[in-house]
UniProtKB/TrEMBL annotation:
GO terms for molecular function: carboxy-lyase activity. InterPro entries: Orn/Lys/Arg_deCO2ase_major_dom, Orn_Lys_Arg_decarboxylase-I, Prn/Lys/Arg_de-COase_C, Prn/Lys/Arg_de-COase_C_sf, PyrdxlP-dep_Trfase, PyrdxlP-dep_Trfase_major. It holds the Pfam family OKR_DC_1. Residues 5-312 form the Orn/Lys/Arg decarboxylases family 1 pyridoxal-P attachment site domain. Its cofactor is pyridoxal 5'-phosphate. Belongs to the Orn/Lys/Arg decarboxylase class-I family. This is Lysine decarboxylase.
Length: 474
């Protein structure tokens, strides 16, 4: 019994403060603790997620009202299931789809499954630290003009770091050309409930929006929502796609979690968010004024690199001007202060917050970061880079690449060859290399640097990240 997953998770829970998802922060404000009692199936009186006409239908209608949608669908396979379902219901084989190159892997999987032709728009990169900024509306319009057969536009806003593109302007452009706009708003499900946060994509004219409730709200992992606010979406096709790409045995625990989260927001949300925002502002002020080497990324980035707004619930600490990497800062926070952050990269860390974080948690984070900061030096030793590569050369779309013969070679010898697999630093799950793209020396150097500092790489062909599958071009 000592080596079970359950016991290991209990040990983790008892020894760590989680500045990471899910937003319920290890069970705070989750009332249905004895979950087995509500773990049921589709029987009389419990409705059916794939043909809702009873209690689930009513729950989804309530969620649509709360989140500002015309129609809301509960997702039990996370935002991933919603993204794949939405794209599959809108696009047909060989359709063109315009996507931001920093899209989540699920967008690329939908492209692969449906044999779509991706056209990429690249987000801007912050010069100082290499973080991903926003999407240029002008660049997006130019892409649509050059590719008139585009069926769907997909962008991610907010980014993992909380940066928001000019969604209103992008929406107006997309609709001017009679296209459909979908926004992966996985990290923005909390936006609507306090004016301190940006406006939601639904408020800004987007047709279809995906939100991971579990990321920033008190809902269980894998619970998410798909919202529609448009007459351009065929709800029958969408419902059919959801029944294909989600499990045929949807978890009533997850659906109950979504409904309970919505009820909490409706009945207590104003008070909970007011208290949370007060504590969050206090935390950010202290970090802004007390850090001298590390730097809190704050609202000065707005207006830079097409960042229209930012989500201040994300506490992003920039290490660029210090003698420490983000991964090392993460390690110190975990081992010395029992704080686990959501993400650590070469240049930064991300601490995720929610209404379930109280004064003591914020105080703990500030104290730890200020103490660490006092022992650092100003020393810009890290290059400006991130896991987005410009000027990628595409030889095959992902579907075509999946049908080709592949073989394994040493990563060091792969420059100029065509990748047979996704290569993805995790988190955040944004592909560095896509199947069918030419592998560059820059790719290889960045993979090696990530590996050296302990960032997990998915998609290489061995645990030491030394080999990669390439396409046989013969």
């Amino acid at each position: 019994m000592k080596n079970t997953l359950y016991n290991q998770l209990l040990k983790y829970r008892n020894n760590i403060y989680p500045f990471h998802m899910p937003g319920h922060k290890l069970g705070k404000k989750i009332k249905f603790r004895n979950m087995a009692k509500i773990d049921v199936t589709e029987v009389k009186g419990t409705d059916n997620l794939h043909n809702p006409c009873g209690i689930i239908e009513k729950a989804q209608e309530k969620a649509a009202k709360t989140f500002g949608a015309d129609k809301t669908y509960f997702l039990v396979n996370g935002s991933t299931g919603g993204i794949i379902s939405a794209i599959s219901s809108i696009c047909e084989e060989k359709d063109q789809i315009l996507i931001a190159r920093n899209s989540h892997k699920s967008v690329y999987n939908a492209i692969l499954i449906n044999n779509l032709e991706p056209i990429y728009i690249y987000p801007q990169i912050l010069n100082k630290n290499g973080l991903i900024g926003g999407i240029s509306p002008d660049d997006l319009e130019q892409k649509i003009k050059e590719n008139s057969m585009i069926k769907l536009v997909v962008i991610t806003s907010p980014t993992y770091e909380g940066f928001i593109s000019d969604i209103r302007k992008i929406s107006d452009i997309v609709h001017k050309y009679n296209k459909i706009l979908m926004v992966d708003e996985a990290h923005g499900s909390h936006f609507k409930f306090n004016d301190y946060f940006p406006k939601t994509s639904l408020e800004l004219g987007v047709d279809i929006v995906i939100q991971s409730a579990h990321k920033t709200l008190p809902s269980l992992t894998q619970s998410a929502m798909l919202h529609i606010k448009s007459d351009k979406i065929d709800s029958r096709k969408l419902q059919n796609a959801l029944s294909i790409f989600q499990t045929s045995s949807p978890s009533y625990i997850l659906m109950t979690s979504l409904d309970d989260c919505r009820d909490m927001i409706d009945t207590k949300g104003s008070k909970l968010f007011a208290r949370y925002v007060h504590n969050l502002k206090d935390c950010r002020y202290k970090l802004k004024t007390q850090l001298t080497n590390l730097e809190l990324i704050d609202q000065e980035v707005i207006g830079n690199k097409y960042i229209f707004d930012m989500d201040c619930s994300k506490i992003v600490i920039d290490c660029t001007e210090t003698d420490i990497t983000g991964t090392r800062l993460d390690e110190i926070l975990r081992n010395k202060y029992n704080i686990q952050v959501e993400l650590s990269g070469i240049n930064h860390i991300i601490a995720m917050t929610s209404i379930c974080d109280g004064k003591s948690g914020f105080r703990k984070l500030v104290k730890a970061l200020v103490e660490i900061d006092s022992k650092l030096r100003k020393n810009h030793i890290i290059n400006n880079k991130y896991d987005i590569i410009y000027n990628t050369q595409t030889c095959y779309n992902p579907k075509e690449a999946s049908t080709k013969n592949k073989y394994k070679i040493q990563l060091e010898n792969a420059a100029g060859r065509i990748s047979g697999d996704f290569v993805i630093p995790f988190p955040p799950g944004i592909p560095l290399i896509i199947p069918g793209e030419v592998i560059t020396t820059e790719n290889i150097n960045l993979i090696n640097e990530y590996t050296d500092i302990g960032i997990e790489i998915m998609g290489l062909d061995d645990k030491k990240n030394k080999t990669i599958n390439i396409i046989d071009e013969v």
